[in-house]
Request: fold
Amino acid sequence: MFNRNRGLRRVAAAASLSLIAGCGVFSGSGSGEGGRIVVGTTSAPSTLDPAGSWDGSWELFRNIYQTLLAYPDGATTPQPDAAEKCAFTDSGNRTYRCRLRSGMKFADGDALDAAAVKYSIDRIRAINAPSGPAGLLGSLDRIETSGDREVVFRLGKPDATFPFVLATPAMSIVDPDDYPAHSLRKDDSVHGSGPYTLKSYRDGERAELVRNDRYQGFADRQNDAVTIRYFQDSATMVKALRTGDIDVTYRGLAASDIVGLEARTDTDLQLVDGTGTDISYLVFNPRDRWAKVPAVRKAVAQLVDRSAIAHTVYKDTVDPLYSMVPAGLTGHSTGFFDDYGDPSTAKARKILTDAGVTAKVPLTFWYTTDRYGSETGRMFQELKRQLDASGLFAITLRSRPWKTYVVGYQKGEYPVFGRGWFPDFPDADNFIAPFVGQENALGTPYPSPVITDRLLPRSRSESDRGEVVKEFEEAQQILVDDARLIPLWQGRQYVAASDDISGGEQALDPSTIMMMWELHRKTSW
Reply:
């Protein structure tokens, strides 16, 4: 029988997942029993070099590389991993010191010392890859080392979120002997110190992970090997789950497949449904003739029917979102609903005519075909239907695969384009800061000095994140007023697995990255 358990995610949006099948619970005992675990996903890495990725490649990185800090045992704030301890050592949140564990080594036996940590993070900034994570290090001034185990991060400005940055897989520690200082590594080999080593890799097909015997860290590995298989679509992945070719599915389950799985009564599978913090949104390019017009953007915001998208396209497997900061995080607001209310053609027409726009506005919407799930194309068809039906817009749709899509938006080719965002870390800062400023994660400059020069610095000076709600609410209102970014929906996290798999309760960290070492086969009921 197919069983579903809907649970609420913790404050930091890291679900305490319980998957129930019959009388068994999806957190049974056992360690490394029954051979390797096979996990299916539709999110393949774009690169194996941490300096080149600010995307879903982090899923693999978490399992084969190591960071100074991470999220052990369900923690919602960063805790030591490669580090023995880390802390701010001043009252102004500008000096952050870490001491490494003793005797750390990479999987090939090379020493993992303070110099390697400094090298790894310095090269991210030196390479400054267009699709890389250098933007996360905006507050970092310099890195110093003292002996083999002490690393000191000197920040140019207070930043209470810096430990969260160090806990992202972007800050993975690499072997200086194997990674060039000023360019990305191009081959398919990995030299890390994580729970697993990458035994073999076929781009877009599979990654074979085996236990790293030199690993020192918090992970208590419940299996000896994991195969990650990369699928082009949800239907093929779910078929593989049903036939037993894979044991677990994570990212990329289509709404229709989720609904189909729930409706079945003749299969022994498990499903978890928990509120997530991934979001979907539209980006408007200020270089475009029409997208740069505030009234055009606001008219689109006035017309978008998020509830229709969630219901008709996603079968209620996502929730309408009215802020760039998702529900469940401190500082969340509902600014787009508060300002625009329900979709209204009359209100949208008034917005345009008050700005002197009387002719039908032509806009081209771009989306990627292979990154955010198979519903993406249907969602953009629904957006086109909504906007065209108003008589105020003439929408043209265009699409590309992810690898070429990224290049296009970084070059500023798209008037309006769709993006998704999985959090780097569970804080409202991470749903605002990456999208504003001259250099941001979108490749589309968005100067907003009130946010970048006043609100974010003020919030980062406060370690107690509950004390900066006002700053986050003000920043979100600026985003609403500008309508450069229009949020669409907030996702839920679905994991499906065969009923003999345990460990899902611990498998997702607060940024919804799967820690493969928690998965194992049940040995008792």
